Amino acid sequence: MAFSTTSRYIHRDPNLLSGEPIIIGTRTSVRAIVEMWRQGESPESIVAELPYLTLAQVFDALSFYQDNQAEINDYIERNRIPDHLVHPLVQVKLQAS
Q1: Helices 69-78 & 30-38, crossing angle to 10 degrees?
Q2: Which has more confidence, 9 or 2?
Q3: b/e per residue, 49-63, with b = 16+ CB within 10 A?
Q4: Domain residue spans of the chain
Q5: In which element (H, E) is residue 10 found?
């Protein structure tokens, strides 16, 4: 298995998500954790929603983001769904929150 460890809980595996940084032992990307955090989720609530993660893993992902913002922001932008493809009912729900 060819992968590189970038921190205690984060690594890159070219066979998973095209090498995007993920939590070791999962398919959960740093990007996904950062997006939840940006939407106002606390690290504790992220663990509640993703109970297979530990608080230490979430904090490590956020720390990794702080050191690699440009890279993770690029992954976020590349995975963003264009507004014209979002169903109108979903858009209304998102605007209400």
Answers
A1: 90
A2: 9
A3: ebeebeeebbebbee
A4: 4-96
A5: strand 10-12
CB contact at 8 A, 16 and 5: no
User: In sequence order, which residues have a C-beta less than 8 Å from that of residue 38 and are 6 or more positions away?
Assistant: none
**What dotted CATH number matches 4-96?**
1.10.10.10
User: pLDDT tens digit string along 3-45?
Assistant: 566 789 999 989 888 899 999 999 999 999 999 999 999 999 9
Q: For residue 23, what is the enclosing H or E element?
A: strand 22-23
Between the two ends of the chain, the Cα-to-Cα distance in Å is 42
